[in-house]
Write a sequence for this structure.
């Protein structure tokens, strides 16, 4: 039960590879933080630095207000769950769970009590005498989680704990992890490359790319107000539609033009243009917000429809840009299966991005200050 | 989609009834013949160079000497075991193995652990320990002779500290000299085996141990050693066989009839060969082989208990 303060933490490996650049975040007590990003974004390295398994090249780490940079992993009062479970193959489930307590010389009867309690919580009581070899993937993961929670540490660190499970089990375990967090009432720091896990589990999400933090925010903020193009494309499936547009003011009203069509934007939106000026921008809109089959709007061509169950993904072409619209099956039945169609893009759902800096217009022209303004990723690193 | 799957399935494994039993047997025979084409040369080699000589050795050990050999039962073995030279050679070899084999296992583990840690000049150290493998023994023996000679380097060096001259190869210490030679030659190879063994230990297990508060000693004995046990077994067997065969170095250092302290089984066998005493030679070979088989079986059993959960 503790908050963490991470200040400008950096990791540069011996071979001069930059793994994490300027990682800073204040994590509140009992918060569930998810670090998410594509592979090689530095999320695991960041977690491992918190655990003490990786040396911190620069910066400061505080757990519960205490400076932790040079503290041994075992003295940080953390526990960690690994992707491949990391169970000791020669020990029974019982001994695996009891491992940390035994190493800390906790009295035997106390160990026994705690192990059985944890086994009860994770529903693995009947497996206690088995060895890891005789367990399924899901059971092994439960044991690994059991080993982590039995000591009741201040912070739980989880490195892609569900990645080795099949889809169905993953969903189930995800829900259980969420319950577990409520029950343990402790700080969780969770690493994943799966944006669904990030969205569903995190109180706050840290989106990373190539060692740089791209955005820190609640799932809602990250989804609806992505700080830049990368976050916008990484969070959400199917990914956000991006359309190259030209911005201008028409009678004082901001508008986006594409292929001769005009897309009205919100009246209040500040796009930093004077009357008569034009600027190129990237318009982003989530597939869920695209409204096909409206009376007026932009004409698009239908490529195909994919039935996803309760929704239909419509693949459309606007000019030379392919966009996707997600509509409920009931609505899709009323729409043509081929040919042309009109779609409208609700003004209040539209995000605009600058093609050069990749930043959201909300950041560039909005009133809120960008908390990550000082942290500009070098252009060449971005493109490499 | 289903259809395609079905077709693939059909190709891979014909359902019963479609092919008759007869053609199945024919296919198997063809398979056997084909595999024999590949295996044949090796099988032939093994038979000619290992199986037949071994049978010949057994034959020689069971018959009397002379032009018209007759069945001798275990007489050859009895006389061999009573033979003073054999007793000396066997005793020396056992003594040598008892010292050299544990050292040939423990020291490389220590070296491998050392080289695994982040230390400066790591690759230089590795090359240093590996170089003896590449050097032909015969060419280095000269240097060893210079070092261990009565008027050699080591004595000269020790005299600086007021130590009296020792005739290394003729003293009680001669077995130690041979041990040093043996280790010098074998450490590097064993070390490489242990390094690869260490590299195969799942990193996460050691990290979990770290996070959960295990001491370095615990991590070493309870985790690393367990994962190293197959390598330890292999290195121990290899070293044991090598230690039984230690000869080349001593032979090159001291010739046919070395000082008593370093008269090894291989010397004995070599001399028996030279004096055409095939009976003693064969009996000795069989006794050594049996001894090795028993030792290796014990080692396998121990390793089986210790390492069974960590393998595959």
């Amino acid at each position: 039960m503790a908050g963490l303060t991470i200040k400008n933490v950096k990791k540069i490996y011996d071979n001069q590879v930059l793994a994490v650049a300027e990682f800073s975040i204040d994590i509140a007590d009992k918060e569930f933080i998810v670090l998410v990003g594509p592979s090689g974004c530095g999320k695991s390295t960041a977690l491992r630095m918190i655990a003490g398994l990786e040396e911190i090249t620069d910066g400061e780490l505080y757990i519960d207000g205490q400076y932790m940079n040079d503290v041994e992993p075992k003295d940080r009062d953390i526990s960690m769950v690994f992707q491949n479970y990391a169970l000791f193959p020669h020990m029974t489930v019982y001994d695996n769970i009891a491992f940390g307590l035994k190493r800390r010389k906790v009295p035997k009867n106390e160990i026994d009590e705690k192990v059985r309690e944890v086994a009860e919580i994770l529903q693995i009581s009947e497996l206690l005498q088995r060895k890891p070899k005789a367990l399924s993937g899901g059971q092994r993961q439960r044991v690994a989680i059991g080993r982590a929670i039995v000591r009741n540490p201040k912070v739980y660190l989880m490195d892609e704990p569900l990645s080795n499970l099949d889809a169905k089990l993953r969903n189930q375990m995800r829900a259980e992890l969420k319950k577990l967090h409520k029950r343990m009432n402790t700080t969780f720091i969770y690493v994943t490359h799966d944006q669904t896990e990030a969205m569903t589990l995190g109180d706050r999400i840290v989106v990373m790319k190539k060692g740089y933090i791209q955005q820190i925010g609640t799932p809602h903020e990250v989804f609806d107000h992505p700080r830049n193009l990368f976050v916008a494309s990484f969070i959400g499936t199917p990914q956000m539609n991006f359309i190259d547009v030209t911005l201008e003011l028409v009678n004082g009203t901001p508008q986006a033009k594409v292929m001769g069509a005009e897309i009205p934007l919100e009246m209040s939106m500040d796009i930093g243009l004077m009357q008569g000026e034009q600027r190129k921008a990237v318009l982003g809109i989530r597939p869920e917000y695209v409204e096909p089959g409206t009376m007026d709007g932009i004409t698009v061509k239908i490529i195909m429809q994919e039935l996803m169950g309760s929704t239909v993904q419509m693949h459309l072409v606007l000019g030379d840009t392919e966009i996707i619209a997600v509509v409920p099956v009931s609505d899709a039945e009323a729409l043509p299966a081929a040919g042309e169609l009109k779609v409208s893009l609700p003004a209040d759902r539209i995000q605009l991005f600058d093609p050069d800096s990749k930043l959201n217009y909300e950041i560039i022209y909005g009133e809120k200050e960008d908390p990550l303004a000082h942290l500009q990723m070098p252009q060449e690193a971005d493109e490499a | 989609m289903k259809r395609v799957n079905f077709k693939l399935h059909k190709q891979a494994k014909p359902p019963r009834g479609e092919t008759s039993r007869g053609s199945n047997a024919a296919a198997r025979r063809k398979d056997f013949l084909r595999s024999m084409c590949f295996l044949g040369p090796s099988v032939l080699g093994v038979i000619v160079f290992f199986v037949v000589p071994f049978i010949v050795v057994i034959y020689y050990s069971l018959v009397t000497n002379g032009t018209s050999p007759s069945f001798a039962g275990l007489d050859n073995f009895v006389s061999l075991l009573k033979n003073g030279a054999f007793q000396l050679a066997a005793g020396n070899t056992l003594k040598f193995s008892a010292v050299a084999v544990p050292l040939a296992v423990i020291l490389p583990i220590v070296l491998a652990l050392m080289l695994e840690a982040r230390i400066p000049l790591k690759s230089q150290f590795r090359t240093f320990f590996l170089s003896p493998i590449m050097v032909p023994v015969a060419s280095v023996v000269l240097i060893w002779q210079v070092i261990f000679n009565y008027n050699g380097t080591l004595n000269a060096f020790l005299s600086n500290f007021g130590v009296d001259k020792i005739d290394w190869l003729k003293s009680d210490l001669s077995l130690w000299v041979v041990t040093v030679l043996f280790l010098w030659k074998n450490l590097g190879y064993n070390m490489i085996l242990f390094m690869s063994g260490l590299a195969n230990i799942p990193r996460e297990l050691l990290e979990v141990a770290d996070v959960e508060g295990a001491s370095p000693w615990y991590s070493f004995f309870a985790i690393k050693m367990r994962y190293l046990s197959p390598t330890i077994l292999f290195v121990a067997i290899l070293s044991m066989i090598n230690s039984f065969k230690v000869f080349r170095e001593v032979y090159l250092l001291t010739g046919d009839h070395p000082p008593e302290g370093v008269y090894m089984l291989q010397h004995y066998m070599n001399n028996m060969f030279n004096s055409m005493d095939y009976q003693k030679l064969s009996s000795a070979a069989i006794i050594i082989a049996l001894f090795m088989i028993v030792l290796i079986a014990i080692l396998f059993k121990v390793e089986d208990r210790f390492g069974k959960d960590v393998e595959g």
